[in-house]
Amino acid sequence: MRKEDFTYIQFKILSRKESVLELSKKILAVINELGKHNYEKKNVKYLGDQYIQNEITSSEIHNYLTKKQEDTTIFSNKTKEFNLFITEEICGDEIYDCLWFSFNALIPGFPKIPDLKSLLNLLKSLFISFKGIYAYTEDEEILQVYFAQRSYDKILSQLPFDYINFLPKPDLDFTNHFNIPSHFSTNEMNISEAPNGFWWINFLSKKQIENLNLNSTINDWHHTEVINDEYTLYVLTDTILNLNNKEHLLKLQNLIHKTDLITIQEKSII
After folding, report:
1. In terms of domain of life, where is this protein from (predicted)?
2. How far apart are CA 249 and CA 27, in angstroms?
3. Contact at 8 Å (CB) between 231 and 203?
4. pTM of the shown model
5. pLDDT per residue over 230-245, tens digit each?
6. pLDDT tens digits for 180-214?
7. Peptide bond preceding 111: is omega within 30 degrees of 0, i.e. cis?
8. CATH number belonging to domain 9-138
9. DSSP helix/strand/coil, 243
10. Residue 49 carries which DSSP code?
11. For the packed helices 116-129 and 20-34, what is the interaxial angle rounded to 10 degrees?
């Protein structure tokens, strides 16, 4: 797959699970931040299918959340081409509030590279507004490279022996040639101890940084920035992380090896 043909990349923020009232406040803070970063056309006007003519309030969000039936909550702008999704994410024995959205809808022409500085300023403000504890840019290609093999093996292990030969074997050659070890999935891990992988843009906690000894890897990142006493922003490459770019791939391979990431992930499993 050529990266210029690549269509799916999203930003995910995990936050501690809170009451509906507190979640409403976090969502409103995110909505307000979008309007401050030159994304006025993306201002949220819909709570599900309900159109809000004036500015949205935390009370309106709270009422919507308490009445909704779906597992996924969708907040849309006026033309509905941009959506914020609110879901729950299971990590080990913890459940987190999860906010995510597609860059493709937010930034016209994405994955053409936007101005990195303004993008990072936006993501930092959203991370803080949603009271994030972990955040990253989830990339479809890298997602499969990290998790496809272990997911397949897990399904195999749960099947009766007589059924194994009937399970279609996925084509994993495209993942293997990158020489990246299989990662543990997010729902297996204690995400406060280790990230589920290294991505283009990463917001990591003090505990994750200590466990991975990331302070010794500063020169391996394109950009690092302390957000506050608890969280630091790590950007791996100056453009979108592309596994077909030899320089990008080598940086990622070296970082996974240097931090002993997979071992740290395994130690975090509940």
Report:
1. Bacteria
2. 35
3. yes
4. 0.87
5. 999 999 998 889 888 9
6. 888 888 888 899 999 999 999 999 999 999 999 99
7. yes
8. 3.30.310
9. coil
10. T
11. 160
